[in-house]
Design a protein that fits this description.
With 284 residues, the chain is mainly beta. The chain has one helix at residues 3-18; strands at 22-30, 34-41, 44-50, 55-63, 67-74, 79-86, 104-109, 114-121, 124-129, 134-150, 161-174, 183-196, 204-213, 216-221, 225-231, 237-240, 245-248, 251-254, 263-280. The longest helix has 16 residues, at 3-18.
């Protein structure tokens, strides 16, 4: 008669022991001048934003049994390394509210430091709001998931490198006109992409955009002159553009292209899908 209660107690004990042990790792680094962020994340939810002071703040929450995380600043080279490794990528597809299955990373970048960002995401969500910083170079590789990058305020220095590569997923790039680059490389293999060139820092900029499979939208501000060269993949590509542009062969010119000192030149290669070109008048 006492076997059933004993089994129930044993089951409860085993269930309690199987619960995830959530670890919260917090780090703060005072940055003197330059800093390179070298981030490698298997999966999870990553948020990168501007710090309120000139320190770099790191917060990582993860399941100790299923995930390993490490953060280290090499003071000789000014390289901050951040690694998050999951034993099982599949768990990164769980709800973001299920903390036992999903690593959460928050990085606050110092606004006065000269920054080089070298980022790699294998799966999950990446949300960046990185305006009003000194970003010298920006390199990102994302293999699967959702990405949102917003230069909500002008970058404080010229960006020497802007190179982003997305394999599979949904990508939204906002206010690239604030990124302050002269040249950019943007690549997407499979998925949907929004590329918004609004902002205040475009004088003469060029971007190479490679789109393989999916629907993509490019938004350009009306206040600058825009020239777009489009290479299409036979009849499997379609370009939808407003009457603000005139087409001459593979080139599309905005009405004000020869009247504006500020100009944007886009070299676009499209694969299978539709490319939509839109004009934003909000910056008039």
């Amino acid at each position: 008669m006492k076997i059933v209660p004993l089994l129930a107690l044993l089951l409860c004990a085993l269930t309690a022991g199987a619960e995830a042990e959530i670890v919260s790792m917090e780090k703060k680094y005072h940055i003197r001048g330059d800093m390179e962020l070298d981030m490698r994340v298997d999966g999870g939810k990553v948020e990168i934003l501007r710090s309120e002071d000139n320190d770099c703040h790191i917060l990582i929450e993860y399941d100790r049994e299923r995930c390993r995380a490490d953060v280290n600043l090499d003071e000789d080279t000014d390289v901050l390394e951040l690694f998050v490794d999951h034993d099982n990528w599949a768990m990164t597809k769980k709800s973001v509210d299920d903390k036992s299955k999903y690593a959460r990373i928050r990085i606050s970048l110092p606004p006065k430091a000269d920054l080089a960002l070298n980022l790699e995401m294998k799966a999950g969500e990446l949300d960046m709001k990185v305006g009003d910083l000194h970003i010298k170079s920006f390199e990102l590789r994302s293999y699967a998931g959702k990405t949102s990058i917003d230069f909500d305020q002008p970058n404080r220095c010229e960006m020497k490198t802007f190179d982003v590569d997305f394999k599979i997923g949904e990508v939204k790039l906002y206010n690239l006109g604030n990124a302050n680059f002269a040249e950019a490389d943007i690549n997407s293999s499979v998925g949907s992409m929004l590329i918004d060139f609004n902002g205040e820092k475009i004088e003469q900029a060029m971007a190479r955009i490679d789109l393989e499979i999916g629907e993509s939208t490019i938004v350009v501000p009306e206040k600058i002159g825009v020239k777009i060269k489009v290479s299409k993949f036979l009849f499997l590509s379609n370009v939808d553009y407003p009457n603000w542009f005139t087409q001459e062969g593979s080139y599309y010119y905005s009405r004000n292209y020869n009247k504006k000192k500020e100009s944007l030149y886009l070299v676009v290669s499209t694969g299978i899908g539709e490319l939509k070109i839109r004009v934003d008048k909000k910056n008039d």
